[in-house]
Amino acid sequence: MICFNGRSWLMYLRLSLILCTFLVPSFGEFVKFHHQPKADGSLSFLVIGDWGRRGFYNQSEVATQMGKVGEKLDIDFVISTGDNFYDDGLKGVDDPAFEESFKNIYTAKSLQKPWYSVLGNHDYRGDVEAQLSPVLRQIDSRWLCLRSFVLHAEIVEFFFVDTTPFVDLYFTDPKDHVYDWEGINPRGAYLATLLGDLAKALNESTAKWKIVVGHHAIRSTGHHGDTHELVVQLLPILKAYNVDFYMNGHDHSLEHISCRNSSIQFLTSGAGSKAWMTDYKKHYQCDVKYFHLGQGFMSVLLTKYDAKIVFYDVFGKVGHQLTASKSKQQLHSST
Q1: In the Cβ-directed half-sphere of 184, how many Cα atoms lie within 13 Å?
Q2: Is 224 a catalytic residue?
Q3: Beta carbons of 316 and 68 less than 8 angstroms apart
Q4: Which is catalytic among the residues 224, 252, 256, 283?
């Protein structure tokens, strides 16, 4: 386990170049990191996805509001749900897009915390290894992106899952796009190992809260809708091991969906910049508690027994709140 607090984060950066071979393993083996919560045991963080557009399409405006909310909550870190760099990922570790879309955008003092990130489908259209490389952490020490990994923070464990290789369409009909599948093939073995490692990690977890993070939605009422491959292959594992929240991007919206046959709350935060998809799909299997077609982000505050999740728009206005209680095993939501 790799432990992070203020000092150990810097130490990790010095060691990462030496350890990089082990930190980016192939075939889905989950590396586990540790993030120390606050002295009172609580943890707060922001969730943002689909953002990297060099500040355009209101990315900079969203970043400004993130900074304000981050300061108010004294956040511990930021989670990125993928599609970190548009339109086609990074070209290499020296691609100026890393600084132009990340380092120079999220400049607020409160956002100078670790960013735990997964890859999206647009990231797979570039040099995947560049985004995973510890060289980027020499440019900006906040950045940490792996295909799949576990983040342990005492009261909660996060399970970051590489969802892009699950989607059949990227392989059968990629259109004009070229995907970087190095390290994925043979695909069947990669996915089987990933799912097996995830099940094992969830089974061994003793954390009060379990949160799974991926790029693609399992349940969504936005443009892309449900991801069938994840409904079939990933969702049964989440149900079996009592996952509390699934957080994703991909649809350029903010969403909260609750399904009648599961206690998992499905939360989409993919509104970090361009939000141009205007269609809305009715969902017949689940209840749509909240849908916002526009830029924004999400905040999460966790204690041992309670969770509070808030959705903000591009102006920092609260659109929806979800509270969950472990002590009562009840979920409530309000706007």
Answers
A1: 19
A2: yes
A3: yes
A4: 224
